[in-house]
């Protein structure tokens, strides 16, 4: 099903989106036959419900329930549940929603059309929607396309999504939007001083790489850094089978920044964009990096390895050090970094850290407007000592098991010394249970919130 709207047509069937509180008012405008039909079908405007109104053997109209304020708060994107329940055809939306509330539900409609069918062909319906004329449909379609890219990349299994395939995805995106791209891979990583990216990826036969994409000629500068661990065995600190089962999504940070980059470029946001992705596979072989090794980073900081399964922060550190050498106006990293973040806020919220309190407020406000929930966690200074092992400048896996997301963020912040504003996201990148517009599987987190916040964050 296409992630786009269609042009108005006289044959489009009216689709009324009605909240439970507005049902009586809507019924007052309908014929007696329609009232009886809706009553006979038990239509109460519950969220996601649908009632087809027939006339002369055809569909005269469809009424979709939008529930109550309480049910909508518990299940955002409620309109997305409607699409799969409609017969094939073209529908014209009629609703009292306006502005951001309407845009959210129209995005829900598009995202509900996402299907990952690379490996098994699924039957596709032919359901189309005419959006209200007041809406910038091009913007919503661009956002949906960016989210679809993120989902596709995460959902693709690691045998078909290694560092080379992630590189190709970035190259395709760059080509589509006229961006420049360069790749440093294999032994060249050592020659170009990316020692920790090389150390994490060297055990795999699939060469590690650093992807560097640039777009835009004028405006403020934004650098996005995404963790691209295409599969994480845990290295010599091997994960148990249950923990390894979802590790194809460990490149979710890279997938999310590529999705956000696609949105930015498609919408021609007036800024200069740079995307950095350290792409590796954390594998096991005789040359794998070991517990108790001490690595020297691009920044010059030494890192004691106390767990080879804390590899994401290592590859991000070298990429962040590179970004920091040409300080952007805003630097953002995104990574599926710690289980601690999941324990703290679950899979639905995207925890983030910000060196500038104003940035945190702007992002949180934007996230609420576009239904892309985030939650700020602190750079808690008293925990700095937890990442200082004594034998080296930094410890990649402090003992004790407490404040894991915070200590990881503090670790990354050590590699950002010149950039004035830095934000880090510790995302999950996976929807464990199906929900309206969000099928089980890969999902973007924080990208739409950042896109909405960029005008204020960068004074565009």
TrEMBL record:
**Cellular component terms, GO, for this chain's entry?**
cytoplasm
Q: Which GO terms describe its molecular function?
A: manganese ion binding; metalloaminopeptidase activity
Domain Cytosol aminopeptidase: residue ranges: 307-314
Plastid as a keyword of this entry, yes or no, is: no
Question: Does the keyword Protease belong to this entry?
Answer: yes
Q: Pfam families attached here?
A: Peptidase_M17, Peptidase_M17_N_1
Name-wise, this protein is Leucyl aminopeptidase
Species source reads Celeribacter baekdonensis B30
């Amino acid at each position: 099903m296409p992630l786009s709207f269609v042009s108005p047509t006289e044959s489009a069937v009216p689709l009324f989106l009605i909240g439970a509180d507005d049902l009586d008012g809507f019924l007052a405008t309908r014929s007696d036959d329609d009232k009886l039909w809706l009553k006979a079908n038990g239509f109460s405007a519950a969220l996601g419900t649908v009632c087809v109104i027939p006339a002369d053997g055809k569909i005269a109209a469809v009424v979709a329930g939008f529930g109550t304020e309480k049910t909508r708060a518990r299940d955002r994107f409620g309109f997305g549940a409607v699409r799969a329940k409609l017969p094939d055809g073209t529908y014209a939306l009629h609703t009292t929603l306006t502005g951001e509330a309407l845009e959210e539900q129209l995005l829900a409609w598009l995202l509900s059309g996402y299907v990952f069918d690379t490996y098994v062909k699924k039957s596709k319906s032919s359901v189309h929607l005419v959006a209200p004329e007041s809406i910038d449909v091009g913007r919503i379609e661009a956002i949906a396309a960016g989210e679809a890219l993120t989902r596709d990349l995460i959902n693709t299994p690691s045998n078909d999504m290694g560092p080379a395939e992630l590189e190709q995805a970035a190259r395709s995106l760059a080509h589509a939007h006229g961006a420049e791209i360069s790749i440093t891979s294999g032994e060249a990583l050592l020659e170009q001083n990316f020692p920790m990216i090389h150390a994490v990826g060297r055990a795999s036969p699939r060469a590690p790489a650093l992807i560097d994409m640039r777009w835009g000629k004028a405006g403020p500068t934004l650098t996005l850094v995404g963790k691209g661990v295409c599969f994480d065995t845990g290295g010599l600190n091997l994960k148990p089978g249950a923990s390894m089962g979802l590790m194809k999504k460990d490149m979710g940070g890279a997938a999310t920044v590529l999705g956000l980059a696609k949105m930015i470029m498609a919408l021609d946001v007036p800024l200069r964009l740079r995307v950095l992705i350290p792409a590796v596979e954390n594998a096991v072989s005789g040359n794998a990096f070991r517990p108790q090794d001490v690595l020297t980073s691009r920044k010059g900081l030494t890192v004691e390895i106390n767990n080879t399964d804390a590899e994401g922060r290592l590859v991000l550190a070298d990429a962040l050090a590179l970004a920091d050498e040409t300080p952007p106006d805003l630097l953002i990293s995104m990574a599926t970094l710690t289980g601690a973040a999941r324990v703290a806020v679950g899979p639905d919220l995207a925890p983030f850290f910000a060196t500038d309190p104003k940035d945190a407020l702007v992002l949180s406000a934007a996230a609420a407007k576009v239904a892309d929930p985030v939650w700020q966690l602190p750079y808690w200074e008293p925990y700095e000592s937890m990442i200082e092992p004594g034998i080296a400048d930094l410890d990649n896996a402090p003992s004790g098991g407490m404040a894991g997301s915070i200590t990881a963020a503090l670790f990354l912040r050590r590699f950002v010394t010149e950039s004035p504003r830095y934000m880090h996201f510790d995302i999950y990148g996976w929807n464990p249970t199906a929900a309206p517009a969000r099928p089980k599987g890969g999902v973007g987190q924080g990208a739409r919130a950042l896109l909405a916040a960029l005008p204020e964050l960068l004074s565009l």
